Aspartyl/glutamyl-tRNA(Asn/Gln) amidotransferase subunit B
Amino acid sequence: MQWEVVIGLETHAQLQTNTKIFSGASTAFGAAPNTQACEVSIALPGVLPVLNKEAVHCAVKFGLAINAEIAPRSVFARKNYFYPDLPKGYQISQYELPVVGKGSLTIQVGDSEKTIRITRAHLEEDAGKSVHEDFHGMTGIDLNRAGTPLLEIVSEPDMRSAAEAVAYAKKLHELVQWIGICDGNMQEGSFRCDVNVSVRPKGSDKLGTRREIKNLNSFRFMQQAIEYETRWQIETLEDGGTIQQATVLFDPETGETRAMRSKEEANDYRYFPDPDLLPLEITSDYISDVKQSMPELPEAMKARFEQEYGLPAYDASTITSSRGFADYFVSATAAFGGEAKLVANWLMGTLAAKLNEEGLDISASPVSPDHLAGLLKRIQDGTISNKIAKEVFDAMWTGEGDADAIIESKGLKQVSDAGAIEKIVDEVLAANAAMVAEYKSGKEKAFNGLVGQVMKASKGKANPAQVNEILKQKLA
């Protein structure tokens, strides 16, 4: 039998606010345990929650970014469950009336585009954190995170492969950073995903029993977890077993998922409206004001880059995959004043490779947009070749100065004097008679060998276009 996997994601984005969602306590990461667990966070008797307006602002920005419905009236509810890191015994969340309704996000997988529907996005408070590794036979509870504002983003089960799920998660990760509502730091738990996976016979429209993989904080782990879980479910069904709805964890050490507990249903949480919080009312004027403050969104910027700079769709899509890359490209192109495609090539090639090699974000690039533009100007005016430009770039990366200073100090200026190049060519032809004979007998590869010998003799400084032209004249 052929099987089809069905995947939906619930993503928790920690909102970039200075204080918690219902109190004035700090949300800064890395404080000593329990130093930011305020009276509201730990539910001391008599305290009352007060909604953080900035969290609402973030939620509305997200809703606008995915072209979703923004509810004029939404309600906070109490989600009741008992766990050591939840001191109140309930979590303040939204249930029947979320602030953000139906929207969508378009992803790219290979050459195909697919639209993933988003069911809802609702505001809620985070729980604390159970700490196991620092204690022997015990668990520590750190309540610093309790009360941190989250936006939970729930997709429809529209994904049909691990690749699609990862593409959707990455696109969402890029978007929340782009619009400035979440720093996206997965290691610190600012962006984490729960993945619902089920399988069904191919062609069936009936959903299978799902298992939820909790708290995946890396795209690589997400890919591995979904692939393992899919195989496990298919093998279980083909062996005559049944799938029980459950919450599971992924173990990166073994590459396997394991059941943690049976999966709760909504009625298990006994949701009811929080009596301490008024309904949240959002006016059309407020939505208009938020819309005015929004940055240009990636899709709009991609279309503009194609139109304004003449970039191919692939280049525009790659550059607008990150706000930092897009801003760098715009700055470098403006400073260069030449062909935007050359900037794009260096940004996606040499610069991106170097950043990836050293694990740096583009905001930390030692080569500024102005410095890259200066390098490209020297390529454009023939001062240096592309090959020499790589050497100059490496020197710029290690802080040796701008392109002009490095070219001058290292004597890297390209030789474009026809007489000087002709002299080198004559010497190479005289020293490589066998290679000349091979070329004249029809072996085209010999020509490239002669070009290489000329470049070697000139220590890479000869203008490659002139070398080719003079060699062809001499060999004609």
Q: What stands out?
A: The chain has a mean pLDDT of 91. The CA atoms of residues 417 and 462 lie 9 Å apart. The longest strand covers residues 112-125. Residues 3-285 form one domain.
